[in-house]
Design a protein that fits this description.
Blueprint lengths: L7 H11 L2 H4 L10 H29 L2 E2 L5 E2 L4 H10 L18 H35 L2 H13 L2 E6 L15 E4 L5 E11 L8 E8 L12 E6 L1 E3 L5 E4 L2 E6 L10 E6 L5 E6 L5 H37 L21 H33 L3 H36 L2 H4 L5 H8 L9 H14 L4 H18 L4 H30 L1 H6 L1 H30 L4 H18 L2 H11 L1 H4 L8
Parallel strand pairs: 3-6
Antiparallel strand pairs: 1-2, 4-5, 5-11, 5-12, 6-7, 7-12, 8-9, 10-11
Helix pairs in contact: 1-8, 1-16, 3-5, 5-6, 5-7, 5-8, 7-8, 7-9, 7-11, 8-9, 8-16, 8-17, 9-11, 9-12, 9-16, 12-14, 12-16, 13-14, 13-16, 14-16, 14-17, 14-18, 16-17, 16-18
The chain binds flavin-adenine dinucleotide (FAD).
Flavin-adenine dinucleotide binds next to strand 3, strand 5 and helix 12.
């Protein structure tokens, strides 16, 4: 079995050289994130991922989470202890407000750390990830009382959080939520209803679980404008902070799933015994709006799950390809005996594809994280606005594209293993199974693509999309005019691909208003087009920087040359997909919709 090792050199190159961690660490409140400190944090996180989380990944998959007859849920052996260590080491509150016990570090740092948790043990990390979402919701919109009562324990990880949105009839369409919340004379509410697929809705890590629940008050308007957000603790919390009575919220079953077996996915029932006591977050009927503010970060994190899983699948495939001996590689020394499969050109193609996609996804996600920090903390209002617009555009791309590409990367991870890839013991199959959920939860790829074509592209008539495409074009021109043949090749293809993107934006903006169904029919190709071009853009920037370092004799030459070679492979072998996507967008929508329902 291979062991996960955080790709620290690659992470630090992207953080420091491409995304300007030094600038981020000068933003107000981020003074503790100087590059040297961050380097030490990443090293420690890497050790925790390798030594504590990675060894539990496979056993956790085999054993799975279990619900006992008394309604309690146990996580696989070792998970509870690993969670205790995770919290004791302070990993739970990395970006959280220091007022509530967090460390207040930038999102850019959290992003790199989080990648390691996802890579080493996705099922384990879903609990902290959901807690993070719940903390975010209370921090952004909760009353001071709610904050004081719940945040310190949730930031420390002593209590965990969940997000309860989905109901049997309300998945992608949250307007259909039916859970009821009845106001009580004391200002609290009583909740009644059923929520499904609730990640870590019940578990044995901690004494209390704080559920964030979407529900409707009695006179709420129909649809999305009538949904409110509530805090519902598993155990009531007394004024002195001690735990009180058991609340009326129970896990009635766990789902049997394709992957992430160690993560309990619960059916939760609220109010079977008189009503679950809940407390309103913010104002009535604004729950979905709050949830969306918070969901941005959750969607970003799921995109990072794609990066982490891809990195893990890649490392495992490389280790196997260097070990497995099969056949003599074509075109090499005829006298040589059979060699490792990594010598076969087709295995190299698969490994390069996995590597290039993973580096591209990472670079796209990290540059978005850096923009998130600037959007919140940059001293100049115009800069904050610009960064914020970029983040808004990129979130559905990070979520939608990285999770889709992770399917391909984990698929290739199985393929590199041959028959052994299909056999569970190698671990490659687990990555493939675990990856399958990430294009679905936190909004499917279709939902991300709808967001991208509507709110993020058509609403401002393509202004932000075109501005970002213009930035990509500038990088393409810089690369294409370079005397170095690799940079030149990358630049020529990037220029062609950004033209594909611009053509798609030009088609989409008028189509969104005039031919709504046609625009939606090609929304996912549009999302994929953005992803593939943004990946080429960021790898191109990295290649420019790597070349400059080589010229100046700075850094590790072998690492820098590999960065350039990977970027060139991406440009020559993967980036040309842009023309296929662009063609499908500008010509394909009628054929998507050509057949009537009865023909299926
Ligand atoms: C393991 C797991 C963990 C989960 N964790 C949580 C959790 O912690 N909390 C929580 O609240 N939920 C959770 N979910 C629920 C998850 O977010 C939903 O499953 C997801 O949003 C999709 O909803 P759905 O399953 O009802 O599918 P549907 O909404 O029925 O979608 C079915 C298909 O129709 C497509 N579709 C639907 N509407 C549109 C549209 N408008 N345009 C284009 N295509 C559309 C979808 O893309 C999809 O392909 C989890 C689910 C799973 C499986």
């Amino acid at each position: 079995m291979s062991t996960y090792h955080a790709p620290l050199a690659e992470m630090e190159f992207v953080l420091n050289e491409v995304d300007g961690l030094a600038q981020i660490s000068k933003l107000p409140g981020f003074e503790d994130a100087a590059p040297d400190t961050v380097s030490a944090i990443l090293e420690e996180a890497g050790k925790f991922a390798t030594n504590v989380l990675d060894p539990l990944n496979w056993s956790g998959d085999r054993e799975g989470a279990k619900r006992l007859d008394d309604g309690t849920v146990t996580t696989p052996a070792g998970f509870k202890e690993a969670y205790r260590q995770f919290c004791e080491n302070g990993w739970n509150g990395l970006t959280k407000d220091p007022e509530f016990g967090g460390q207040g570090l930038p999102q850019l740092v959290q992003t790199a750390v989080e990648e390691m948790w996802h890579a080493a043990n996705l099922a384990f990390d879903l609990c902290p990830l959901l807690t993070q979402g719940a903390v975010e919701a209370i921090t952004l919109r909760g009353s001071d009382e709610l904050k004081q009562k719940y945040l310190p324990n949730m930031v420390a990880g002593t209590w965990t959080g969940t997000m309860n949105l989905t109901e049997p009839q309300a998945g992608s369409d949250l307007a259909a939520v039916r859970t009821r919340a009845e106001p009580q004379p004391d200002g609290a509410y009583r909740l009644f209803g059923q929520k499904i697929y609730i990640t870590f809705g019940e578990h044995d890590y901690t004494d209390n679980i704080i559920h964030l629940v979407l529900a409707r008050t009695p006179d709420a308007p129909e649809g999305v404008k009538g949904i409110s957000l509530f805090v519902v603790p598993k155990f009531m919390v007394n004024d002195d902070g001690t735990l009180g009575a058991r609340n009326d919220v129970h896990c009635v079953s766990l789902e049997h799933k394709l992957g992430i077996h160690a993560s309990p996915t619960a059916v939760m029932v609220y109010g079977d015994h008189g009503g679950a006591v809940g407390y309103l977050v913010g104002e009535e009927n604004r729950g979905l709006e709050y949830m969306f503010i918070m969901m941005n970060l959750a969607r970003f994190s799921v995109g990072m799950e794609g990066v982490g899983l891809s990195e893990r699948a890649y490392q495992r495939a490389v280790a196997y390809a260097k070990e497995r001996v099969q056949g003599r590689a074509v075109g090499l020394d005829k006298a040589a005996k059979a060699g490792a499969i990594i010598e076969h050109p087709d295995i190299r193609r698969m490994l390069m594809t996995m590597r290039a996609y993973t580096e591209a996804m990472r670079a796209v996600a990290y540059v978005t994280a850096a923009a998130l920090d600037n959007a919140h903390r940059h001293p100049d209002a115009e800069a904050r606005k610009r960064h914020s617009a970029f983040v808004d555009l990129m979130i559905p791309i990070v979520k939608g594209w990285s999770t889709e590409i992770a399917q391909e990367v984990t698929y290739l991870g199985v393929q590199v293993h041959g028959g052994m890839g299909f056999i569970e013991e190698t671990g490659a199959a687990q990555h493939y199974r675990d990856a399958r959920i990430i294009t679905i939860y936190e909004g499917t790829t279709g939902i991300q693509a709808n967001d991208l074509i509507g709110r993020k592209t058509a609403r401002d008539a393509g202004a932000v999309a075109n501005a970002v495409a213009g930035e990509i074009d500038k990088v393409a021109a810089k690369l294409a005019s370079h005397s170095d043949p690799s940079l030149n090749a990358i630049g020529m293809q990037l220029a062609a691909s950004v033209a594909d993107l611009q053509a798609a934006i030009a088609w989409l903006v008028p189509a969104f208003g005039a031919q709504t169904r046609a625009a939606h029919a090609v929304a996912v190709p549009y999302l994929k087009l953005w992803g593939i071009v943004a990946g080429g853009w960021q790898l191109g920037r990295g290649a420019l920087i790597a070349t400059a370092h080589l010229t100046e004799g700075r850094g590790n030459a072998e690492f820098l040359r590999a960065k350039i070679a990977t970027a060139r492979f991406y440009a020559e072998c993967l980036l040309p997909q842009s023309s296929g996507h662009s063609h499908a967008i500008t010509h394909g929508s009628a054929s998507v919709l050509a057949l009537p329902v009865e023909a299926f």
